[in-house]
């Protein structure tokens, strides 16, 4: 990564020189939401006293149920799984940790028990791996025959296969048995989608589309609610629905405030070439942290990702190389006085960008940590350098090697910047040690960034810039596009194994910090699977937003 201020030969200010500049042009569809979320005023989003009272009552009842259920029973594992998948696990983190710690400490005792089936062992394995506990995948050898293959009798055990499938996604490098388990379970689950009884067939279909490990919590809640109510604890179901709706009101109010801020900036008029996606940006960040204690973090990070999206468009589809050199230099200087050198359309945006970071500085100052904002400024400078490097490649018609490209593209994808900035607004978790760790680009952050870059590139060819890792691979290796896609899909799979490994105890920073990075990878897996849902947000992304931010959970009277 270049450490000096990027420049190009004789940068020219079009305003000062009096020349007419021809900008590139790409047409994006306008915002599909407009002022929609401005309607969510306090009289709509206020949480009523009786709602909060009922939530507290049900929470206490669920807590009693947790305490009364034996830790090593299948019922306890099912209960913990349901609580987490229903999105209310954040209420019972201490209780769940205590129970799973006991399960982990006595894991070897259950290993040799013969009266537990595949579903039990796979569920136990997944819950412990989710919690950061390493348990051996050798447990699944007991379900193999003398030839080393999974037993034929498992083919008819749909709940067991489904549990095995979900567990296999928590594998790390070298766990061949989990790779075998994934192939075995996928093969047989696919063949029985149309034969399994409801609601199991729907459950199988949705799992194959998106496993639990890669599911965004709020979307997963809406799907799981309909499945869980078929055979459930009514008390837990009602609690989950009420909690979902109360949080949805909070999220609607946040998005209303952010929409108002965005509209006041008038970027639609001042920067008409850029994608107007502030609602989509909020959904992105809501998927990183939905819990109520991270309200401030969501607001600040949404503003940063929305501003970064515009910077991306300035470099990718609109700015001339001379203008981009001036803007890159201004970001390096990070001072309001740098505005004078910028063309008119950049002046207003530059000031607005710095204002967003000043707001973050102010919030960190309230808890005596304003000095930590320097880490987030350092990241925005890095990403702009990367954008400029890519722009120069495009203007020069240069196709970099895969190594050259990935060194820059892992920064330009934005996930290193978002990972660092995600700490702002997280209160006491925003320590200097946490900022230092994320800024050092550890394996977890690199893996999440790799998933972001590769999945984006694999679906984004032929739009905006032509540069992508796929093009670089084809150019360097003389391979076909299909061969390139296979290679990078394998790399995405391996990056998930890196993520799984880095989330196992002991961890350098708290799990709450790690999960922001993991959730960023999950968002990409959703939005860039098969298509670029951010670029064209009129399709599946519209449905995701409607499900999580508009449609409440239906509570029976």
Automatic annotation (TrEMBL):
Pfam families: Terpene_synth, Terpene_synth_C. PANTHER family: (-)-GERMACRENE D SYNTHASE, OS04G0344100 PROTEIN-RELATED. Residues 263-498 form the Terpene synthase metal-binding domain. Its cofactor is Mg(2+). This is Alpha-humulene/(-)-(E)-beta-caryophyllene synthase. Residues 32-208 form the Terpene synthase N-terminal domain. It comes from the Eukaryota. CDD domains: Terpene_cyclase_plant_C1. Keywords: Lyase, Metal-binding. Gene3D superfamilies: Farnesyl Diphosphate Synthase, Terpene synthase, N-terminal domain. GO terms for molecular function: lyase activity; metal ion binding. Belongs to the terpene synthase family. It comes from Abeliophyllum distichum. Pathway: Secondary metabolite biosynthesis; terpenoid biosynthesis. Coiled coil: none annotated. The lineage of its organism: Eukaryota, Viridiplantae, Streptophyta, Embryophyta, Tracheophyta.
């Amino acid at each position: 990564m270049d450490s000096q201020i990027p420049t190009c030969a004789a940068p020219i200010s079009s305003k000062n020189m009096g020349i007419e500049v021809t900008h590139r042009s790409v047409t994006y569809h306008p915002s599909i939401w407009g002022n929609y979320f401005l309607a969510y005023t306090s009289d709509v989003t206020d949480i009523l006293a009786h709602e909060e009272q009922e939530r507290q009552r049900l929470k206490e009842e669920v807590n009693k149920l947790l305490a009364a259920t034996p830790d090593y029973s299948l019922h306890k594992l099912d209960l913990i799984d349901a609580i987490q998948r229903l999105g209310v696990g954040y209420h019972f983190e201490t209780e769940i940790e205590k129970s799973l710690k006991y399960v982990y400490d006595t894991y070897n005792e259950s290993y040799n028990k013969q009266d537990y089936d595949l579903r039990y062992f796979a569920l136990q394995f997944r819950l412990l791996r989710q919690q950061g506990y390493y348990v051996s995948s050798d447990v699944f050898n007991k379900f193999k025959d003398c030839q080393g293959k999974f037993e034929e009798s498992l083919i008819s055990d749909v709940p067991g296969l489904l549990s095995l499938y979900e567990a296999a996604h928590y594998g790390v490098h070298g766990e061949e048995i989990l790779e075998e388990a994934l192939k075995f379970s996928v093969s047989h689950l696919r063949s029985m989608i149309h034969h399994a009884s409801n609601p199991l067939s729907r459950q199988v279909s949705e799992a194959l589309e998106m496993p639990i490990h890669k599911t965004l919590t709020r979307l997963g809640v809406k799907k799981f609610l309909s499945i869980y109510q078929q055979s459930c604890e009514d008390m837990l179901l009602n609690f989950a629905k009420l909690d979902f709706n109360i949080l949805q009101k909070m999220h609607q109010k946040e998005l209303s405030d952010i929409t108002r801020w965005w509209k006041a900036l008038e970027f639609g008029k001042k920067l008409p070439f850029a994608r107007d996606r502030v609602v989509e940006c909020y959904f992105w960040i809501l998927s990183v942290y939905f819990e109520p204690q991270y309200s401030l973090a969501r607001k600040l990070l949404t503003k940063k990702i929305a501003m970064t999206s515009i910077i991306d468009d300035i470099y990718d589809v609109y700015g001339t190389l001379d203008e981009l050199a001036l803007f890159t230099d201004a970001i390096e200087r990070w001072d309001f006085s740098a505005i004078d050198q910028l063309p008119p359309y950049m002046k207003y945006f530059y000031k607005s960008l710095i204002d967003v970071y000043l707001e973050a500085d102010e919030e960190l100052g309230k808890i005596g940590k304003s000095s930590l904002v320097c880490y987030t400024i350092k990241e925005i400078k890095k990403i702009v350098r990367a954008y400029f490097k890519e722009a120069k490649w495009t203007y020069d018609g240069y196709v970099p090697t895969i190594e050259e490209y990935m060194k820059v593209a892992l920064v330009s994808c934005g996930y290193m910047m978002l990972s660092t900035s995600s700490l702002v607004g997280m209160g006491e978790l925003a320590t200097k040690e946490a900022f230092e760790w994320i800024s050092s680009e550890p394996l977890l952050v690199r893996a999440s960034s790799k998933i972001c870059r590769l999945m984006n590139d694999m679906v984004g060819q032929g739009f905006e810039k032509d540069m992508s890792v796929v093009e670089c691979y084809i150019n360097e290796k003389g391979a076909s596009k299909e061969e390139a896609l296979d290679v990078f899909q394998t790399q995405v799979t391996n990056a998930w194994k890196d993520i799984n490994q880095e989330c196992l105890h002991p961890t350098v920073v708290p799990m709450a910090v790690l999960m922001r990075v993991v959730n960023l990878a999950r968002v990409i897996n959703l939005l860039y699977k098969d298509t670029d849902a951010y670029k064209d947000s009129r399709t599946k992304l519209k449905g995701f937003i409607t499900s999580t931010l508009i449609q409440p959970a239906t509570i029976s009277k």
